[in-house]
Amino acid sequence: MGARSSATRPRAVGRAAGLGLGGATLLTLLTGCSVEDWGSAFGHFGWPGPGISVQAHEMYDLWIASTIAALVVGFGVWGLIFWCIIRYRKRGEELPVQTRFNMPMEILYTVTPVLIVAVLFYYTAIVQTSVDKLSKNPDQVVEVVAFKWNWQFNYQDGIGEEAGTVASTVGSSDVIPLLVLPVGEKIRFEETAADVIHSFWVPEMLFKRDVMPGNVRNVFEVTLDKEGRYVGRCAELCGTYHAFMNFELVVVSPDRFDTFLKAKVDGASTQQAMEAIGFTGSEAYAVTTQPFNTRRQSSSWNQPENVAAGK
Questions:
Q1: pTM of the predicted model, to two decimals?
Q2: For 60, 80, 177, 310, which has the most beta carbons within 10 A of its beta carbon?
Q3: Residue 230 pairs with which residues in a beta bridge?
């Protein structure tokens, strides 16, 4: 009687564990409608947030689902460990029945990890393919030109190096460059650097892409779905003032963007074009970050003691 009980119990435990982990993992990964709710409830599990683009939402969902799946597996393993500790704790001096192997358990802990990795790989490949997908006819094309230590954004009339520049905005030590884009449209970024490697990064987009010098043009697309103003940064150490190489992404409605771009085409400055779409006064300039001080502009820079101290 005792031998039969000890032989059937591991099989029952294995089936229950397999069904529990597999069912929970699939349920978590397939119920995308509640992923954001789960993420918000637990502080996004270290992720910056849902993001401001369609692609960002896909990456966010993958991160949250993967984290929940990992927690489910972790709690399942911990539960089995503590169950074994309690169930098979020492009850006397008699040595328990010794077994050489348990085939169901070995199959369980071999097949289950393979299935979990396969599911995660599958969804990762889907999201990565979607994020890197390029359309044949994007609604807007922006050439991003990075240089030490600022940005230039050229609104293009087509795709590729042969396209012409309709309007552009460029940053300086005194003025943070503004990248104004419409919500709900496919935006194609074509990146190039004038000197060294930089990296185009807007944290709320949950995505960054290196900007390479030479003939290398990194290209990607996003569809922004939330209006607002967001700081952009260089995420690649590029020199002395790398930390101050910022820009601001301004996401507006398509109508306001058309007005902004028309004003730029007609010869208005970026700030004048911002005023044309309702951003007046200080709002015509960046509000998420400030211009950097190169220190060479200060009256004390030429003092020998400050030069020697690097102040």
A1: 0.74
A2: 60
A3: 249
